[in-house]
Write a structure and sequence with these properties.
Strand order of the largest sheet: 5-4-3-2-1-12-13-14
Number of strands: 14
Helix content: 25-40%
Radius of gyration: 18 Å
Largest sheet: 8 strands, mixed
Number of helices: 10
Structural class: alpha/beta
Length: 268
């Protein structure tokens, strides 16, 4: 059998594996996944999205593993989920600061995701897409549930650094901000990153980060790309991502991830 220089694949979703219509070629992926399995190569989705949203993309592919919520929710077939939560008091402080800035946060918990009923309609619509189990509530404080994976807020890209500084002031060791580079900011537990989540998941199957090929386009992919043995930035990725990765893949709208994997697997 042809040798392949990696034992696991990690892909971001939006802007990486998915095209701009939030789709991917399932038949083409099925062929790639079958070839990966023949080589005993693990396929992992590493995304800031909620786990419940991610599994809907891959309902036909039960072998897929997940590092969801930017590493706060880690799961794989045959593995008990590993979860990292933002402390309830920290989440409450972050949400309160968002509201004081006039921002409309979304809160992702284990049971549901939550958004305020009076949040702008466009934000509620976006939240319903990314979080299939979303609940609209009268207020986010007090917390609708105590087990919080992350608090997400959308801001103008030019305001990201200022907003991050405000939301995390005095909480630097208790919460970490993960800007995506497109105005979305996820506030998660410091122990939850894509790289750390991948390390945990890979260790369960006897692999390590050096065995990984990773694909990403946004700033929340940087740690994953730095840690992977082989790293690809998408051609549509942000400048800092393209500078960080070892190699460049074709864009998400060209099925760049599948193109690269097909070359390694000799399927093209």
């Amino acid at each position: 059998m042809q040798s392949v220089p990696f034992r696991a694949v990690a892909v971001d979703m939006d802007g990486t594996f998915l095209d701009d219509y939030k789709q991917f070629d399932e038949d083409r992926f099925a062929r790639v996944l079958a070839a990966l399995q023949e080589h005993d190569i693990q396929f992992i989705v590493a995304s800031g999205n909620q786990y419940e949203r991610l599994v809907r993309y891959f309902e036909a592919f039960p072998a897929v593993s997940y590092v969801a919520e930017n590493g706060a929710h880690i799961t794989s077939p045959g593995m008990a989920p590993v979860r990292h939560f933002v402390p309830a008091d920290v989440a409450t402080t972050v949400i309160t600061r968002c509201l004081e800035l006039g921002l409309a946060p979304m809160v992702c918990g284990v049971r549901h995701a939550y958004v305020a009923q009076d949040a702008p309609a466009v934000l509620r619509e976006r939240a319903h897409y990314y979080c299939p189990n979303l609940v609209e509530v009268a207020a986010l404080v007090p917390l609708p549930e105590k087990t919080i994976y992350q608090v997400t807020v959308n801001v103008a890209q030019k305001d990201e650094q200022r907003v991050v500084a405000t939301l995390t002031k005095g909480l630097e060791w208790r919460v970490t901000a993960r800007p995506s580079g497109n105005g979305s900011i996820d506030l998660i537990a410091p122990t939850a990153t894509k790289a750390q989540g991948l390390a945990t998941l890979l260790a369960h199957s006897g692999r390590q980060l050096a065995d990984l090929i990773a694909f990403g386009d946004g700033e929340n992919d940087l740690e994953m790309l730095r840690a992977a043995g082989i790293s690809y930035a998408m051609a549509n990725g942000s400048p800092v991502v393209r500078r960080t990765a070892q190699l460049i893949a074709p864009s998400n709208n060209e099925a760049g991830v599948l193109q690269v994997l097909e070359r390694y697997l000799k399927l093209d």
